[in-house]
Amino acid sequence: MARKTKLPNVGDVFSFKLDDGRFGACRVIRAPNKREAAFWGGNVVVVVGSAWIGADSPSIDTQGLSKILHLTHHSHTGHPVILWIGGSPPKGFKLIGNIEPSINDKKLKCNAIGDWDSIQYQPLMQWRWDNELDLVLAEERAQDEADDHDLLAANNDRQSYLASVTLDDLSKRRFLSSWTGFVEAEPMKLARKLLRETVNQLSNLGVRSQRKSRVQVFKDCVVALNDLDRLHRFIETEEREDLCEELEVIAYACRLGDIGNQIDEWRDW
After folding, report:
1. How far apart are CA 49 and CA 28, in angstroms?
2. Are 244 and 258 in contact (CB under 8 A)?
3. How far is CA 8 from CA 13, 18, 44, 92, 95, in A?
4. φ, ψ for residue 157, nearest 5 deg
5. Inter-residue contact 40 to 84 (CB < 8 Å)
6. Rounded distance, CA 164 to CA 168, Å?
7. Cα–Cα distance between 163 and 265 in angstroms, integer?
8. Dihedral (C-alpha) 72, 26, 24, 122: value to the nearest 10 degrees?
9. Which residues fall within 8 angstroms of residue 139, CB to CB, at 6 or more apart?
């Protein structure tokens, strides 16, 4: 049986460095009762983020550590930073002492589970929203524009590749290369084999064969993948996207173009 990670004590206060070099803090305010332990997994405590931010790491006597951070940045509506968190704080969280939680602290309801990184991220984001809103919004607009540019470039590259790829190119392709280490060996091996066989069948037919013959090869492949998934239950969101991308490449290589709608009709995954 795996050993549970040691939890911090109720009342423990931790400081941590923010991305701008200043410091923030958080407190552990309670442990779960039996019902909460059963629901949240047991090895958790309730942690609240502090509204305090300072240039230097605080001491336990620093004023303002007990003030709870409330979020209003972006779509937040003023709710407190309060999370069920499991395990001990990561490296970089420094235990500075213990503050006995108040009666009001102990009454706080916690309906969300998170991690220590979330506690560390929020103080600076809220401070910047309160003090540097124009700059934050400008940075986010610039990031959105950069993301849109990258997406357009990636789409253009993809379309160029699809327009030029051939079945000969795919004869040496290692299909589903991102699955290694993430998908079980047996279904991964069989899925790759199905894709290779599909390429071989299409190569034997040739790109000038009847369209309905080439489409039938795809349908047979998708039906076989349906059967494989029913047996192994391995196709989740990422695997589905990967398979659809590989089938798209094969479809363009055999000059069928976009048959994604037909594949969607055939697949169960």
Report:
1. 9
2. no
3. 9, 21, 9, 15, 9
4. -65, -40
5. yes
6. 11
7. 24
8. -30
9. none
3-state secondary structure of 36: helix
Those residues whose C-beta lies under 8 Å from the C-beta of residue 197, and which sit 6 or more positions away, are: 221
At 97, list the tokens: 């002492």
Contacts of 2 (CB under 8 A, 6+ apart): none
Q: Which two tokens stand for residue 151?
A: 């997406």
pLDDT tens across the length of the chain (269 residues): 334 568 999 999 999 999 999 999 999 999 998 999 889 888 899 999 999 999 999 999 999 999 999 999 999 999 999 999 998 999 999 999 999 999 999 889 999 999 999 999 999 999 999 999 999 999 999 999 999 999 999 999 999 999 999 999 999 899 999 999 999 999 999 999 999 999 999 999 999 999 999 999 999 999 999 999 999 999 999 999 999 999 999 999 999 999 999 999 999 99
Q: How far is 119 from 126, CA to CA, in rounded Å?
A: 12
Closest CA to 51 of 76, 32, 30, 23: 23
Q: What are the backbone angles phi and psi of residue 96, rounded to the nearest 5°?
A: -110, -5
- Length of the chain in terms of residues written: 269
In the three-class reduction of DSSP (H, G, I as helix; E, B as strand; rest coil), residue 105 is classed as: helix
CA–CA separation, 68 and 33 (whole Å): 22
Three-state SS for 73-92 is CCCCCCEECEEEEECCCCCC
Q: Give the relative orientation of helices 116-131 and 133-164 as an angle to the nearest 10 degrees.
A: 120
